[in-house]
Design goal:
Layout lengths: L11 H8 L60 E7 L3 E8 L6 E4 L3 H14 L2 E8 L6 H19 L8 E8 L2 E8 L5 E5 L6 E2 L2 E2 L2 H13 L2 E8 L3 H20 L20
């Protein structure tokens, strides 16, 4: 039985003829090296975007902050505001990035206020950096007030001419039995409408009267119209924390770019002859 060889494979008679050829007619043999691929692809090496030093804690992290921590790489074209406020009672530094990722790095000497600033950063997706020292051996009033004044001023700087933003924001935030609604307008006209019924005088060591004072101070320096309403709630901690969360989300709405605005300032066009 004669076998038919596949195309491209020489027969035995052809091989014998090739062996009898003179050496000068034999082409040199070259070994072909084929690339060897791994069974699974290797990930691409990417340059590190941050230094190897410690970074500020994220908003949800309860670890201790570090003053010497490296700042995260800022977003290209981010909107930043930075202010240092020094009085006889306090020394405050505040920095905010409206286009951040929710990095919280606050140390005010008032633990409950630090916790609330973490909510502002985390739920607003702002990078919030605050350092404050003050006469908290007397009470928290001056430090609480000046931190809010500094954050409001930093926010005003970060907003710039306010071109292309939504300007308005509103949000209702639940926290267990508490439900808080916040509506705001970055109008340049400071006003606070405040209606919280906080049942206890203190949460930990924090005087709950300072919540209203915090938002009044922030509204004054940022030029914000701000309304805060309690729809439900019995637990003082829940009421205050839901307030900061709702405020963060409403502020995030108001500061985010509105693509339909096409970079214009969000205001009504005044026409003198039009009624």
């Amino acid at each position: 039985m004669e076998l038919t060889l596949p195309s491209g494979i020489p027969s035995s008679s052809t091989l014998r003829r090739l062996r009898n050829l003179p050496q000068s007619h034999t082409a040199p043999f070259t070994r072909i090296q084929y690339p060897v691929f791994p069974l699974s692809p290797r990930p691409m090496d990417r340059p590190s975007l941050t230094s190897k030093s410690k970074t500020p804690r994220a908003a949800a992290d309860n670890g201790a902050s570090s003053i010497s921590a490296a700042s995260p790489v800022p977003a290209v074209g981010g909107r930043f505001g930075e202010v240092k406020r020094v009085t006889k009672e306090t020394n405050v530094f505040a920095k905010i990035n409206l286009d951040g990722t929710g990095v919280a790095d606050s140390s005010t000497g008032i633990p409950f206020l630090d916790h609330m600033l973490d909510q502002l950063a985390s739920h607003g997706l702002f990078d919030v950096h605050v350092r404050a020292t003050g006469d908290i051996h007397i009470d928290d009033h001056h430090t609480n007030e000046d931190v809010a004044l500094a954050i409001g001023t930093a926010l005003l700087q970060a907003l710039g001419d306010r071109k292309g933003i939504h300007r308005f924001g509103d949000f209702s935030a639940p926290l267990d039995e508490a439900l808080i609604h916040v509506a705001l307008d970055l109008s340049g006209r400071p006003y606070l409408g405040y209606d919280l019924q906080i049942p206890t005088q203190r949460v930990g060591t924090y005087d709950t009267q300072l919540v209203e004072h915090f938002f009044q101070s922030l509204a004054n320096t940022s030029g914000m119209t701000l309304h805060i309403r309690q729809l439900a709630g019995k637990n003082s901690h829940h009421i205050i924390e839901a307030t900061f969360k709702a405020f963060a989300r409403a502020l995030r709405q108001a500061t985010e770019p509105d693509p339909r605005r096409l970079g214009t300032i969000p205001r009504s066009v005044f026409t003198p002859n039009r009624r």
